[in-house]
Amino acid sequence: SHPITSPLSSKTPPRPSTSASNSEAVWTNINSAHRSRSAIRHTRRFVRCLRLRLKEGYESTDHTPHSVLCSFGQELEGCTSIESLILEGKLGTNELECLKDFLVQSTLRGIKFHRTEINHSSFLILRDFFIGNKALKVLDLSNNLFIDDKAILECIDALLRVKVNLETFNIDCVRPGDDSHDDNCTISESGAELIAWFGSRSK
Predict the structure, then answer these.
(1) What is the 3-state secondary structure (H, E, C) of the chain?
(2) Which of 54, 94, 188, 196 could form a disulfide with 89 if both were Cys (CB 3.0 to 4.6 A apart)?
(3) What span, in angstroms and rounded, lies between the C-alpha atoms of 65 and 63?
């Protein structure tokens, strides 16, 4: 299966930067997020990219990935110094709920979901984020097995409710190299047509 990609502009999307002069790249494993969340919120420096990854097989008697993520999300509420966010791993609707308040108040220019478990219900949570964020330029939904036509419909419906000017909108329906899903694409022709229609309306 080939990725469904809808580039809405020839402009290059924002990329993570490690330059210490004017930006700060933060790469953190969510299992240790409780040690860095306060520093991120109170930093006076520009955070170009924040990456949160939930790993499989995490075991702890003191913390669970969900509780750590919720605590992290609470600390980030009101933080506007983060330009882009990458969410990766075993993150689904329940985990996304922990970040909802932060996302709604954020001014993210880019957000990427990579190999997560987000689905149709996840986009119900993301609706307020899409509607309220006019700064969003990059939306990357690549490599998420549970994104289907319902999820696409919810996503595009929210994007159409605000004059968002996406420069890059990436979607595919299977993970590259996952042969077990090659004949079971979760996005139908109708879903692909909806994506193409949305792309044609974007400036």
Answers:
(1) CCCEEEECCCCCCCCCCCCCCCCEEEEEEHHHHHHCHHHHHHCCCCEEEEEEEECCCCCCCCCCHHHHHHHHHHHHCCCCCEEEEEEEECCCHHHHHHHHHHHHHCCCCEEEEECCCCCHHHHHHHHHHHHHCCCCCEEEECCCCCCCHHHHHHHHHHHHCCCCCCCEEEECCCCCCCHHHCCCCCCCHHHHHHHHHHHHHCC
(2) 54
(3) 7
The residue ranking higher by pLDDT, 198 or 58, is 198
Integer Cα distance of 88 and 158 in angstroms: 22
> Distance between CA atoms of 73 and 33, rounded to whole angstroms?
10
What integer best gives the mean pLDDT of the chain? 76
Among 154, 162, 135, CA closest to 195: 154
Instruction: Judge residue 112's burial from the number of C-beta atoms within 10 Å of its C-beta, 0-12 exposed, 13-18 middle, 19 or more buried.
Output: buried
Query: Is the confidence at residue 174, as pLDDT, over 70?
Result: no
Q: Would you say residue 12 has pLDDT above 70?
A: no
CA distance 69 to 37: 10
pLDDT tens, 139-149?
999 889 899 89
pTM of the model: 0.74
What is the longest distance spanned by two Cα atoms in the chain?
A: 51
